[in-house]
Design a protein that fits this description.
The complex is a heterodimer of chains A (142) and B (441). Chain A is an alpha+beta fold. Helices cover 42% and strands 18% of the residues of chain A. The chains are: A alpha+beta (142), B alpha/beta (441). The interface between A and B is large, with 41 and 47 residues.
């Protein structure tokens, strides 16, 4: 089977067809929803955080195959990470874990990073006591 | 438990390869299968009658005769006055380039103004943009919400410096049939040559170039069961046109380069079959178009048909739909995985990340343009195919809406529907602007 048969590689297609962690979290501790100005896609990530660690993550995405796959992969990657580690998360991790994305689709992975960071910021806003313990400076709230 | 990446996908592809699933090709606007009789007619011209039509010996004569026959078949399809008014190019894009640049350069001293419809095909739009960089000016005439050209705007746009009006017969994206006969009358009154792009209509609708008073008409046989690699340009003998590809004196000096003889022969057969078959093709696709749209409208909520309703203002082969709260590329991929080949005008499908310029020109809400799918029927599409597409599409929409934050937010009254507004919540575009920090485009 040729990898070039479709727009995406088989890992991306697998995450598109069978997304992991799709949905919402009841009583989420942090929720981030971001939109891509470039194409109009929208991504939402919900987090459950306990003892400074991401216990669970869910996503919902309005967007193309690579946007859905990127959010699926991002939620897989960040589960179990500390807030500090998650604050340093980059879209490149998503791209690498997916085995690459077409150049025009890299912005989908950026959207996943932004949705995750928006969810973390939401959590920190609600739990200001955690901010002082962080090694990574919290970006100014929008 | 996590699945091994790729296994499910590989399984799906294997299923498709082993042909265990139904295949429904609904992208006839992009390409059609070659007619077996056209293929048969082409074969001897690859091996036996391989001569160059410009050669003076017997081998050249043989293929010259074949080109002449194809010219007659093309002339008959579009009611041209003479086969000598038919020119062969490499495809529809080249024909459009030749029509626009050829007329513009030929009339450079008369004036440097062009008038085109805003929803022309990129081969027309981008040819015009090329000329604009070289000092020509162009007026783009707008369309109404169903894609119909505004005739009064067109009339007002024509100036004494106008050397060409370019209008498509049928829109490649949303299937709108343009009032070409009226445009022809306006152009005749003003004495300006008219070029009609018939890419989306040739072989599917009657064309009468003389009744339109068209100076130039272009089309591609691969849209009506002919081969790729050949385009047609009709040029009325009174129209001035200069060559844009220079070399030998093929095609009466209008288009240099050795003709693609086998493709031209196959295209001629396809044109002849299309002419004989036209009424049956229209009746068949008209019935399926109504069945497909009725099924989708009934079973998929919050879905909109872009362009005119099926009927006299819309070509019988095209359905352009927008399904709300989900994006088009995801729909296209899931259709493909279920054996259904469709196209989309969503920004996610385009390499420029822009929605189709046609959808933008009809003023379609950005959220709806992003949820766009284009289905084009053909003569081999069956009732069973259409019913399978409706059933499958319902499941695809359900799956993608289950993943969409917009669908959820609509249910909770945070955002409103564009198709059937409830009066609760803000618009999708406003919401998208709020979460992206920038206005939606």
């Amino acid at each position: 089977m040729s990898e070039t048969y479709t727009l995406y590689n088989s890992t991306v297609m697998d995450h598109f067809m069978h997304p992991r962690n799709m949905g919402d979290l009841k009583d989420a501790d942090g929720v981030g929803e971001v939109g891509a100005a470039a194409c109009g896609d929208i991504m939402k990530i919900s987090l459950k955080i306990k003892d400074g660690k991401i216990e669970d993550a869910r996503f919902k995405t309005f967007g193309c195959g690579s946007a859905i796959a990127s959010s699926s992969m991002a939620t897989e990657l960040i589960k179990g990470r500390s807030i500090d580690e998650a604050m340093n998360f980059t879209n490149q991790e998503v791209v690498d874990a997916l085995g690459g994305l077409p150049p025009v689709k890299i912005h989908c992975s950026v959207l996943a990073e932004e949705a995750l960071k928006a969810a973390l910021e939401d959590y920190i806003r609600k739990h200001p006591e955690t901010a002082s313990k962080l090694q990574t400076p919290v970006p100014a709230a929008a | 438990m996590d699945r091994l990446p790729g296994i499910q996908f590989a399984f799906h592809r294997l299923k498709a390869i082993l042909d265990l699933m139904r295949h429904v090709y609904l992208d006839h606007q992009a390409a059609t299968p070659l007619l077996p009789e056209a293929f048969e007619a082409m074969k001897p011209f690859f091996t036996e009658w391989f001569g160059n039509p410009s050669s003076l010996h017997e081998h050249g004569l043989r293929v010259r005769e074949a080109l002449k026959r194809s010219r007659e078949q093309m002339a008959a399809l579009i009611h041209a006055g003479s086969p000598d008014e038919i020119f062969f190019t490499s495809d529809g894009t080249e024909s459009a380039n030749l029509a626009i640049k050829g007329v513009a350069y030929a009339n450079e001293r008369r004036g440097k103004h062009l008038v085109v419809c805003a929803t022309e095909h990129p081969s027309v739009i981008n040819s015009v943009e090329f000329l604009e960089k070289q000092g020509w000016t162009c007026t783009r005439v707008g369309v109404d919400a169903e894609g119909r050209l505004r005739l009064h705007e067109l009339k007002e746009a024509i100036t004494p410096q106008t050397v060409l009006v370019a209008v498509h017969h049928v829109n490649h994206d949303i299937g709108t049939i343009q009032p070409v006969a009226e445009v022809g009358r306006i152009c005749s009154d003003k004495g300006v040559p008219l070029y009609v792009d018939c890419e989306a209509s040739a072989g599917w609708l009657p064309i009468d170039v003389e009744a339109w008073g068209a100076a130039l008409v272009s089309f591609s046989p691969h849209r009506f069961y002919g081969p790729k690699g050949v385009g047609v340009l009709y040029r009325n003998k009174k129209a001035r046109l200069v060559s844009i590809i220079h070399g030998g004196v093929q095609e009466g000096g209008r288009r240099a380069g050795t003709e693609n003889v086998p493709a031209i022969v196959g295209a001629g057969v396809a044109a002849e079959v299309a002419r004989m078959d036209l009424d049956a093709r229209i009746a068949h696709t008209r019935e399926l178009q109504a069945r497909l749209w009725d099924g989708l409208e009934k079973h998929v909520g919050f879905i909109k048909l872009n362009g005119p309703r099926p009927g006299p203002d819309r070509i019988s082969t095209n359905l352009n739909i927008s399904t709300e709260f989900i994006e088009g590329e995801g729909q296209l991929l899931l259709c493909d995985l279920n054996g259904i080949a469709v196209a989309s005008g969503s920004s996610c499908v385009s390499k420029s990340l822009k929605i189709s310029h046609v959808l933008a020109a009809i003023g379609l809400d950005h959220a709806l343009a992003q949820g766009n799918i284009i289905m084009t029927l053909g003569r081999d599409t069956s009732v069973e195919d259409v019913d399978y597409v409706v059933q499958t599409f319902v499941r695809i929409v359900e799956k993608l809406r289950g993943m969409s934050p917009m669908w959820d937010e609509f249910q909770r009254g945070i955002i409103d529907s564009v198709i059937r507004p409830t009066g609760r919540g803000k618009s999708f575009s406003q919401h998208a602007a709020d979460v992206s920090g920038k206005p939606a485009h």
